[in-house]
């Protein structure tokens, strides 16, 4: 069999946005592919109908869409030279194109005078839209052309300066967001006239439509974002908002209109803090009273990782008398169902991950983008009760045909009161009589999980002759609140359970050469890599990616530092600086002897560049072999959604470093 090559990810296709048309006679979805020439990604709109998938657009710029009716789709694009010129001049607008599923070219439908990030049908007369606004110019969308030109000129004059007076003032992947808000608008379908519903300083994070009425969640940000929302209601024809629930006690993940009430997934974070799993609450439409609907114990996010996804995920949908939603249980992302009484049951639970889904009430079917069977994403179909699983597409079969795909071999091991999950991938052409190097890969989070999903980088390493092993240590997602609770525990039970896993793997597979082990991980995995090399010399080399090295500096520089840091350290920088320092890998950097490569993005605002620079400096200053590769124009998502050339360079840097210190020429080691 041929080997999976580093460049093979350029051939992969990434599926998202699965959505049935009204009445369910067809479904649409997005397919992304890498474009190495333009160093970006093309996104095409596809149609699934009568058992066949066909492309609807060819330009490659259909980043999102919505169904206008049962035969027409709307999607934003910039297609004309004049529109590109306007964009370049700084004018803010969004043009939507209409395409028929019956055939024909996409045609310009209408234009909205703001940056639209989401559009949906509210009722026969109105759209609901989510768009970016500036608190200083909240009515930009109502300005005349002359006023907009003046605003654009002022913005250009201020482009060399950044004033901040809020927290967070920047956000990973979005840049500086000071005074930027997600606002909600009603758009008249007859004339395109838009009206902003949310207040100028409100951040809208969720909405739903029930019986033609719009409900949304928003938080008014004065100086510091609290991540607690109120709920508002609006009759589109009146374009006036009423506060339905003003308690602002919950961090609301998503909002659904369900029968005669609203249901939201939310948490007060009083029991387990930042990583607490949300529960389901119901809101009376008459009184606004909030009460517990279902005491959900599971993670309500698709938390099983992969480096082969691009696009948004639907987290939940109402279908008839039930709510269907995604949940991470143990090491799989499952589709769950909750009835009108709040009783929960599994609908689809397979090894792997359901990455996106939709349901059609008219024909009782589920259409989903899934990562099953050690493969890449494909479309799958199920009956409404989860039975009759079947793969419906073959987008990624050609890319993997004839390649060695290492199979997941599960390794269970005991640690304290837990039975933990781990896996190994055997090297290509594995011979039990030979010796092989090994790589320990550590996931981020820590509220993330590994499972049997496709990781391109792991397959590359297995195809280059490595045992690759990974596990879900204490603190990972999918095992309930008690398991994921890591406040004040970083570098203790998580580190100990990882080392127990390494011991278990080496005992079970004596073919792994203990003198040729590498360790790597990103984000929390980067923190743990830094922690490991400061507390043991058992690894021949390390690659620390987008890491945390100092909780004291992380507090004031990360987009989540003022919130996540304080919660996870279980103290404040003022009350417990010693505790934060004791949990910081920088404290133990003087112990490091392991040759280490640091990978960091210049625009990583989650784990800022300074976190990597600090510990890199500590190694080089002491004469320890180290190298740092900084990716300009990239952020925390480099390994998952970075530009193709940068992703290739990242994986090449990591692989070359590991091979340098664990390959045949190990004389290079200290």
UniProtKB/TrEMBL annotation:
<keyword id="KW-0378">Hydrolase</keyword>
<comment type="similarity">
    <text>Belongs to the peptidase S9C family.</text>
</comment>
<dbReference type="InterPro" id="IPR029058">
    <property type="entry name" value="AB_hydrolase_fold"/>
</dbReference>
<dbReference type="Pfam" id="PF00326">
    <property type="entry name" value="Peptidase_S9"/>
</dbReference>
<dbReference type="GO" id="GO:0004252">
    <property type="term" value="F:serine-type endopeptidase activity"/>
</dbReference>
<protein>
    <recommendedName>
        <fullName>Peptidase S9 prolyl oligopeptidase catalytic domain-containing protein</fullName>
    </recommendedName>
</protein>
<dbReference type="InterPro" id="IPR001375">
    <property type="entry name" value="Peptidase_S9_cat"/>
</dbReference>
<keyword id="KW-0645">Protease</keyword>
<feature type="domain" description="Peptidase S9 prolyl oligopeptidase catalytic">
    <location>
        <begin position="453"/>
        <end position="664"/>
    </location>
</feature>
<dbReference type="GO" id="GO:0006508">
    <property type="term" value="P:proteolysis"/>
</dbReference>
């Amino acid at each position: 069999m041929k080997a999976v090559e580093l460049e093979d990810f350029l051939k992969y296709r990434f599926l998202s946005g699965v959505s049935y048309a009204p009445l369910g006679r067809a479904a649409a979805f997005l397919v992304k592919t890498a474009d190495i020439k333009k160093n970006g990604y093309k996104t095409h709109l596809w149609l699934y109908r009568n058992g066949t998938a066909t492309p609807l657009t060819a330009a490659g710029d259909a980043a999102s869409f919505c169904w206008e009716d049962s035969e027409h789709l709307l999607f934003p694009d910039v297609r004309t030279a004049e529109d590109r010129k306007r964009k370049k001049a700084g004018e803010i607008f969004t043009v939507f194109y209409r395409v028929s599923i019956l055939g024909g070219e996409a045609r310009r439908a209408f234009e909205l005078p703001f940056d639209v990030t989401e559009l949906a049908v509210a009722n026969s007369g109105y759209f609901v839209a989510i768009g970016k606004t500036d608190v200083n110019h909240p009515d930009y969308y109502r300005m005349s052309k002359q006023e907009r030109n003046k605003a654009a000129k002022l913005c250009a004059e201020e482009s060399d300066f950044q004033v901040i007076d809020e927290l967070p003032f920047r956000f990973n992947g979005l840049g500086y967001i000071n005074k930027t808000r997600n606002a909600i608008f009603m758009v008249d379908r007859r004339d395109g006239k838009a009206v902003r519903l949310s207040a100028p300083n409100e951040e809208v994070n969720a909405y739903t439509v029930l019986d033609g009425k719009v409900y949304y969640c928003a938080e008014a940000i004065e100086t510091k974002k609290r991540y607690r929302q109120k709920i508002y209601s609006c009759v589109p024809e009146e374009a006036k908002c009423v506060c339905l629930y003003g308690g602002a006690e919950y961090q609301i993940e998503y909002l659904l209109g369900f029968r005669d009430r609203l249901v939201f997934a939310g948490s007060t974070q009083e029991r387990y803090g930042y990583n607490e799993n949300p529960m389901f609450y119901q809101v009376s439409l008459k009184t606004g009273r909030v009460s517990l609907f279902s005491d959900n114990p599971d993670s309500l996010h698709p938390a099983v990782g992969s480096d082969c996804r691009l696009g948004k995920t639907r987290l939940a949908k109402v279908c008839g008398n039930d709510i269907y939603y995604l949940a991470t249980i143990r090491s799989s992302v499952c589709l769950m169902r909750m009835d009108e009484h709040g009783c929960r049951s599994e609908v689809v639970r397979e090894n792997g991950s359901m990455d996106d889904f939709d349901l059609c009430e008219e024909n009782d079917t589920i259409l989903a983008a899934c990562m099953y069977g050690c493969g890449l994403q494909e479309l799958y179909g199920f009956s409404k009760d989860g039975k009759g699983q079947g793969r419906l597409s073959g987008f990624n079969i050609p890319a993997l045909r004839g390649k060695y795909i290492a199979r997941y071999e599960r390794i269970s091991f005991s640690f304290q009161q837990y039975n933990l999950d781990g896996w190994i991938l055997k090297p290509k052409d594995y011979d039990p009589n030979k010796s092989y190097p090994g790589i320990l890969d550590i996931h981020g989070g820590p509220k993330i999980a590994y499972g049997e999903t496709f990781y391109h980088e792991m397959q590359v390493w297995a195809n280059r002759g490595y045992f690759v092993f990974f596990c879900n240590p204490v603190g990972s997602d999918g095992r309930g609140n008690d398991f994921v609770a890591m406040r004040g525990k970083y570098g203790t039970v998580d580190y100990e359970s990882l080392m127990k896993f390494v011991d278990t793997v080496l005992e079970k597979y004596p073919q792994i050469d203990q003198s040729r082990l590498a360790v790597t991980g990103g984000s929390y995995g980067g923190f743990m890599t830094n922690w490991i090399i400061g507390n043991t010399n058992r690894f021949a080399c390390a690659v620390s990616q987008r890491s945390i090295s100092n909780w004291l500096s992380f507090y004031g520089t990360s987009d989540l530092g003022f919130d996540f840091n304080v919660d996870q350290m279980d103290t404040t920088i003022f009350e417990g600086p010693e505790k934060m320092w004791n949990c910081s890998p920088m404290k133990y950097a003087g112990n490091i002897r392991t040759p280490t490569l640091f990978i960091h993005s210049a625009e990583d605002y989650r784990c800022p560049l300074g976190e990597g620079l600090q510990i890199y400096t500590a190694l080089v200053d002491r004469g320890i072999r180290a190298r740092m590769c900084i990716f300009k124009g990239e952020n925390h998502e480099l390994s998952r959604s970075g530009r193709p050339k940068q992703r290739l360079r990242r994986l090449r840097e990591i692989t070359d470093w590991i091979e340098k210190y664990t390959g045949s020429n190990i004389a290079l080691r200290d």
